[in-house]
């Protein structure tokens, strides 16, 4: 009698444990690419990195920074980014796919410098990397 109860307990446990599992399907929203451009200079960067649009919406406002501060920081970030892009055996080539053509003597304007700077902040957080000794905001 004990064996029958024991066997029934195991069978009922297996039936409950093996019941069909619900599968959850998630629909991931497509994020529009962020375009960084200065049409008068025919300069454009398109960022396809998921999450950057929402990061940009919560970042410090553009008027928080001076253009000269952003230019100085971007120059440092771009130099390190390009070094890593040219060395795919040392650094993840999925992150550093392309070099950035950023010339310090060209005035790209506030919007381009701001969005480029914010992308570097976003990428450093997302990929847990440091492109300089500057504090990541």
TrEMBL record:
What is this protein's record name? Lipoprotein
Which species expresses this protein natively?
A: Aureibaculum marinum
Q: Name one Pfam family in it.
A: DUF6146
Stored InterPro entries: DUF6146
């Amino acid at each position: 009698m004990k064996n029958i109860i024991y066997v029934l307990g195991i069978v009922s446990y297996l039936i409950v444990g093996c019941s069909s599992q619900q599968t959850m399907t998630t629909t991931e929203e497509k994020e529009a690419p962020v375009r960084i451009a200065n049409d008068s200079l025919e300069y454009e960067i398109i960022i396809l990195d998921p999450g950057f649009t929402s990061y940009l919406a919560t970042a410090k406002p553009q008027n928080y920074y001076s253009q000269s501060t952003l230019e100085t920081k971007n120059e440092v970030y771009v130099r390190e980014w390009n070094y890593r892009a040219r060395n795919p055996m040392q650094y993840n080539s999925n992150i550093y796919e392309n070099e950035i053509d950023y010339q310090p003597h060209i005035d790209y304007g506030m919007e381009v410098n701001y969005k480029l700077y914010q992308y570097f902040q976003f990428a450093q957080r997302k990929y847990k990397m440091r492109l300089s000794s500057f504090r990541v905001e």
